[in-house]
Description:
The complex is a heterodimer. Chain A is 18% helix and 21% strand. By secondary structure, chain A is of the alpha+beta class. Chain B is 65% helix and 2% strand. In chain B, strand 1 (265-267) and strand 2 form a beta hairpin. The structure holds fe (ii) ion (2 copies).
Amino acid sequence: xxxxxPLWEVFIRGQHGMAHRHVGSLHAPDAELAVNHARxxxxxxxxxxxxxxxxxxxxxxxxxxxxxxxxEPANSKVYRHPTFFDIPDDVGRx
Amino acid sequence: xxxxxxxxxxxxxxxxxxxxxIERAFQEKVNAGIKIEPKDWMPEGYRKTxxxxxxxxxxxxxxxxxxxxxxxxxxxxxxxxAILIAKVQDEAGHGLYLYCAAETLGVSRDQxxxxxxxxxxxxxSIFNYPTLTWADIGAIGWLVDGAAIMxxxxxxxxxxxxxxxxxxxxxxxxxxxxxxxxDIMMKLCNGTQAQQEMAQDALNRWWQPSxxxxxxxxxxxxxxxxxxxxKIKQDTNDELRQKFVDQTVPQAKYLGLCVPDPxxxxxEEKGGYDFGEIDWEEFFEVVAGNGxxxxxxxxxxxxxxxxxxxxxxxxxxxxxxxxxxxxxxx
Lengths: 94, 330
Ligand SMILES: [Fe+2]
Ligand SMILES: [Fe+2]
């Protein structure tokens, strides 16, 4: 049992113009068959209009331990949100 | 249930104060309903229990195709045949979602397959009973998928992200399974006397095994407490079993069928049905490998695996060849 098919991550674009979204993974010998398998495994009920497959080994992920340094700096930058600014009602819609 | 015999660590549940800081942080996350993801720190027991539970669940979906698959060629109409194929194909899909969820914990697909084929890994006892008539296909959809739904709905809230997400997909698909089964039962129960008897006979044979799907009674299952603390189990076996009985008895009445249990009666005080003692001896025999179809099921899985070896290897060889050719052309 050494010749295991590699693992692919599957991304599907749903019906309504949304971005491709990760739905799961599967094993397949090559990219073409990975797409075919993804069709059978993840779109049996019209879940999508487009499929991406990526070899799991080719994905680089951020480490859970980096969560602080990566994402915490955004917390203090509240001015990135429009609600930070008080605009008088008299100005009208903005 | 689909993972009836999952043993988590034998030690009792630790309190927060007894835990090392890292384990404490983990448990507090679980308590707060924050999902645990594959790369997050987790106790070894949590990882091991989940691998066992998810792989047993996956094996059950895969082996579960066999009893129903046996009727695909004998379905009474073309429409029923198409529906049954779709249902069985869904179960294959469920198995695949679950294997992938287990793989995120560091076990390989081949390892899991090997554990199933060697008999080391278990699958649900329910799939070791034979499907003797077409009514059994109705009874399985109605009762077996019905029991599966009862178990899988709370698992959508499981603390482990990949398992929870797989369960959400599975639950979306299960409702069709149960309804197609009940639809078969309705058709038979509105049919000739012979058809009604066939439906009754199927219920008679599948009722007890369906109740066993929820696993041993709470008094006998010593490992529930840790799994509940880790939120990889939300309700006890007996709670789910009771819920299933309360939901199913009125459905049997609607069909005009008689639930094969002389001790079954409504208990006003608890607002549920009392029911007879389950034959646990039979349950443990089936789990140990001595049910009516254990040998057949395992033989079928082993044959499928070895008959498919040349095909899997051939596709892999082709993929390698294509890749080398592409590299050479660049
Ligand atoms: Fe299923
Ligand atoms: Fe199902």
